[in-house]
Every structure is written in C-alpha cells, then in structure tokens.
Specification:
about 240 residues, alpha/beta, globular, 9 helices, about 15% strand, seven-stranded mixed β-sheet
C-alpha cells in the first residue's frame, strides 16, 4: 500500500472516471486511488470495480445516496485515516484538476506546509473555458471569504487540495456542517484556525468536457450564509 491517497468523489462520471484513473496511473507518482461514488445511476461504480481488477491500487466506496460532496469526502477522509495514509489528496473526476500537478503538490506538503491548495487565483486568473458569469461568481465568492474570514488563501472554494494526515486527524470530521462548496471553505478555515501552515500552488483549471456540473442555487446559498456562520463560530474550531 502506498502512503499517498487520492480521493475522487463521483456522481454520474462514467465518461471521465476511467480516463482520470489511467492518467494518474501513468504518473511517476506512487499512490492509491479511492473513488467515493454516490450510487450513480450511470453505473460509474460498476466501471470502477472493473478497473480495480486492472489497477490493484484502486479502491471504491459506494454510498447509498447523493448527499453532497462534503459527505462524500468526509467518508473518504475517515477511510484514509483508518488505513493510515500520510498524504491525502482530493480532486475532481472531470479533468478540471490536472493530475500532473499532484507530484508538485506533494512536494510542497513534504517540505513546506500542512495543506496545499491547487489555486486558480494565486497568480491572476487561471481558468479555461469557464463562462464569464461563473468566473465572476467564483472571484466574488473568494473575495467575500477573504474579507470575512481573514484567511491567507485566494482560492477558498478550490476542490484540489492535499493534506498531511495530522490535519485531518486533528479536525473533528463528524462535526463538519456543510456539504456543498461551503464545505471546501469550511475545511480550509478550520485548518487555518488550528494553526496549520497552508500554501497555494498555481494551477490551470479546465472546465469539464464531459458530464454536467453539480453547481446549483442551493450550493451557492449554502456558501453565502455559511461564511458568516464560520466566522461567528471561530472559537469552537480552535
């Protein structure tokens, strides 16, 4: 077993999951992959099971229902801690996060920080094929978070993140409140409040080519109202 785990949450990602797993397998980067599938109707889990016969480092958790990305990662992190991985990464299945960035992110974890964030905004705007409205919404959201939470991260909603196991074992995963993109903010804020060192690695974010985005109004609303909640409860997270 490798000491590094990549967690990929899926819901209807049958068009992407095989390609992303094969791309990770071609890297000069020893790791295991855990797919956490929310019972995708498109049979994503069945495809992953078949792939696990070809790639022995592929693992699968199938959840009974779709409850949001936060719940999927929460279960994945719990599994990772149980199996004693040292470095734990989260990334999307749709190639918006480039697997080629994983070795660079791990290097930062080994030498410079406790959490590394693949950042779209640490050096300008590095987003490809996103609609202008989506870019503006994301930038405004990140600015809103920085103002209210005073966190040293420019891309607070990034879903491309690496952790040392000490971070996840220190956070109370069962007490995480949010399930959508506010979950990404919550994880970073709780890590910051605990005093762990955080660093951003500039990445190029590509809009998905296959499948549908999971963004919706409910997710946006959770993030808007979730940020003040985090600020008001800062003392509880220390």
């Amino acid at each position: 077993m490798s000491h590094t785990l990549i967690i990929i949450p899926t819901y209807n990602e049958v068009d992407n999951i095989e390609s992303i797993i094969q791309c990770i397998a071609r890297l000069d980067f020893r790791c295991d992959v855990l797919v956490v599938d929310d019972s995708s109707p498109d049979k994503t889990a069945d495809l992953v099971r078949n792939l696990s016969n070809q790639f022995k480092n592929i693992h699968l958790i199938v959840r009974s229902q779709k409850e949001g990305i936060g719940k999927a990662y929460q279960e994945g992190f719990t599994w990772a801690l149980k199996h004693e991985y040292q470095y734990i990464f989260q990334m999307d299945a749709d190639f918006s996060h480039n697997p080629q960035d994983l070795p660079k992110m791990k290097c930062l974890l080994e030498k410079e920080c406790d959490m590394v964030v693949g950042s779209r905004y640490s050096k300008g705007i590095s987003v490809v094929n996103w609609p202008l409205g989506r870019i503006i919404l994301s930038l405004l959201g990140s600015f809103y978070v920085r103002i209210l939470l005073d966190m040293p991260i420019r891309d607070s909603t990034s879903g491309f993140v690496g952790y040392k196991t000490q971070v996840l074992s220190t956070l109370d995963l069962d007490e995480l409140k949010f399930v959508g993109y506010a979950y990404q903010i919550e994880m970073k804020y709780r890590t910051h409040v605990k005093g762990f060192k955080m660093k951003e690695l500039p990445i190029i974010f590509l809009n998905r080519e296959f499948g549908k985005s999971k963004m919706n109004y409910k997710i946006i609303r959770e993030a808007i109202f979730g940020v003040p909640y985090l600020r008001l409860n800062k003392s509880r997270f220390k």
